[in-house]
Design a protein that fits this description.
binds zinc ion; 3 strands
Length: 477
């Protein structure tokens, strides 16, 4: 098995922060190096992945990353490495961690009424990162340990995601002290708005979406009063702030930017998942029947998902055929990876194994980047006892997505099937490591070591073990 360089990816090194940061009085003058920011972000990310908050849906996360990448391209730091991820929380919120990690709540995805609105929120968060706002806040807390900084970053996250849960998450007194300063200052907010607006415009979205969305949130909040959406708490929206953005966009022309199909499919997926299968079937059937609102392709996609969940395979297959025809007849679409992924699942349930395998071979050629499709195909290959083909497919994908835990899980299954015990435990170890479970990862590497192996394999295992133990020790400090 190829050495997967946990070393490079986890990139553990003692933080190079001088003892006792100079007290300059003005917090905004103190900041962390980009490498320190990235380390704090990675540490925080491991904890988020290990929590229930992380929405482990490759299609939703891939969509957010594609949209985010379009915006980052036009940012002041286009080469900065960003990771966008969804949070399984139906309140309205989005947040940035140091080092380019940006979380988006399911509730925010559902509240935005256009892709430009969603892009406006991402632009604002990207700008908090490129302007190093969080790094400045954390550096201002005068901590000299990477882990306590990561703890603070996660405490900030917890407070922003769910203020009630924040107390439980805050373990150190330093983190407790910073809780009072969690919200970005007005200066930071204005800067993120100004730069975010430029990204939005340069990336071809409608700049009017930014004040539009904030205004809608503010109106909704004034009715709710103390139940203000979290987003409003962590990014205080004042009438002044909205007025200032409106002033900036006033002279800009409105742009009617059609939403991408993926924006609509991702939202539909979230809506469908919130309802019971019969409720979802009724909801989407009704929407298709009235033909008055929404996008019929997205609605039928929701219907097929619900039918599949309800084990109504024949009806799902029938609706799917209509859906694929609609997509094919659309000049700009022809074919869509999320719909093809769903098509594979329906075909598989219908029981035509040979036909399904053939379908996947073509589909992964058309969409080699679509991880959800790869998971399903690898699982099908394993069920069909084609372990060697599965290993080949998965190894290519792991090169592309070296932090994808599900790919490692599938790879471990494939190795187990071939009786390759060492490789199996190594793959399992990488999966646990990226889930943030260092203890289980170390245990798997110990098992791999006991299974023997070549000199090269053993030295790889040893160096990974060293790496993980160092991380674990650092976490215990
Ligand atoms: Zn903000």
């Amino acid at each position: 098995m190829k050495k997967l360089a946990l070393v490079l990816l986890l990139c553990f090194a003692p933080p190079a922060i001088p003892d006792g940061l100079p007290d300059l009085g003005d917090v905004s003058q103190i900041t962390l190096s980009p490498a320190q920011e990235r380390q704090i972000g990675r540490q925080s990310m491991l904890q988020i992945r290990a929590s229930k908050e992380y929405l482990d849906d490759a299609e939703i996360n891939d969509y957010l990353n594609q949209l985010g990448a379009k915006l980052v391209e036009n940012s002041p730091e286009p080469s900065l490495d960003f990771e966008f991820f969804a949070i399984n929380d139906y309140t309205v919120n989005a947040f940035a961690l140091p080092g380019g990690f940006i979380g988006v709540n399911a509730g925010l995805l559902l509240t935005t009424q256009s892709e430009s609105e969603l892009a406006s929120v991402l632009s604002h968060e990207i700008s908090h990162v490129t302007q190093h706002h969080l790094a400045r806040m954390i550096a201002g807390q005068k901590n000299d340990s990477l882990v306590s900084m990561a703890a603070i970053a996660v405490a900030i996250l917890a407070a922003r995601t769910n203020p009630q849960a924040a107390e439980a998450a805050i373990v150190s007194s330093q983190a407790g002290a910073i809780q009072k300063q969690l919200n970005f200052t007005r200066t930071y907010e204005e800067e993120a708005d100004r730069i975010g607006l430029q990204l939005l415009q340069k990336s071809g979205f409608d700049p009017h979406a930014m004040p539009g969305f904030l205004e809608r949130l503010q109106k909704a909040t004034s009715l709710l009063d103390s139940n203000a959406p979290n987003y409003m708490r962590t990014h205080p929206i004042t009438s002044d702030r909205i007025a200032e953005i409106e002033n900036r966009v006033q002279k800009l022309p409105y742009r009617l930017i059609p939403d991408s199909l993926n924006f609509q499919l991702v939202r539909t997926k979230l809506i469908e998942a919130q309802k019971s299968a019969p409720e979802a079937i009724a909801y989407f059937s009704d929407a298709l029947g009235t033909q008055k609102y929404g996008n019929p392709i997205a609605q039928r996609y929701g219907l097929v998902r619900a039918l599949l969940r309800n084990h109504e395979i024949k009806r799902a297959a029938k609706e799917l055929a209509v859906l694929r025809k609609q997509v094919q007849s659309n000049q700009t679409l022809k074919v869509n990876p999320m719909i093809e992924t769903l098509a594979g699942q329906v075909k598989r349930e219908a029981g035509d194994k040979v036909g399904t395998l053939a379908f996947y071979r073509t589909a992964v050629q058309n969409f080699p980047q679509h991880r959800a499709l790869i998971y399903d195909y690898a699982d099908l290959l394993l069920q069909d006892k084609q372990a060697e083909s599965a290993v080949k497919l998965l190894s290519e994908q792991i090169n592309r997505h070296p932090r994808d835990t599900r790919l490692y899980d599938l790879q471990a299954r494939a190795y187990a099937m071939q009786g390759m015990t060492i490789e199996q435990h190594q793959a399992q170890a990488y999966s646990y490591a990226w889930q943030g479970n260092l203890y289980a990862a170390i245990e798997q590497l110990e098992l791999a070591k006991q299974a023997g192996g070549s000199f090269y394999q053993l030295s790889t295992i040893e160096s990974d073990l060293r790496e993980l133990r160092e991380l674990q020790n650092e976490n215990m400090k």
